[in-house]
Predict the 3D structure of the following.
Amino acid sequence: MTPPATGSPDGRTRRLARQAVTSAGVAAVLVLCALVTGILPVQVVRVGSGSMAPTIDTGDLVVVTTGDVARRDVVVVQRPGTAQPIVKRAVAMGGDQVAIADGVLVVNGEPVCEPGIDPDRIDGVWFAPVTVPDGELFLLGDDRRDAVDSRDFGTVRESDVTGVLAGRVWPRPGGLDEEIC
């Protein structure tokens, strides 16, 4: 059987697939070169605990970039009182009032939709409303049952954030919040 002509749908599909693979390969090499030479301010970090499960599990490799922190970003920060880096979600920022009522995160009096949170990993906790000081963040683990976070050690300074997670490298690439509320 002879292969379809380049202009046929099958030939065009194969040509587009080759171009996509080639483009992806070139992009990967360029990103790798930029990382090695320090042009891009990113690093790859291995997650050391399961406090962000199911979003990020122990041992996952994630890409961390520098930049401003927005609410819902997953960040790397030095755990207060230690030199240990931790990975947590920034759920409230300076000036926000944050609480947990019956396991539901409440920011500024409104329940927060948290698509990546597994309801089985949320205990029925209640956490009294606190106001986050300016320039600071309130951090929570996605596995609220087992996470040590701002409920335990308080808010952290935004300036102590060493990176914002951009995506997962291993075990599967992709965004960190894949469901929509």
Summary: DSSP finds two helices and eleven strands in the chain.
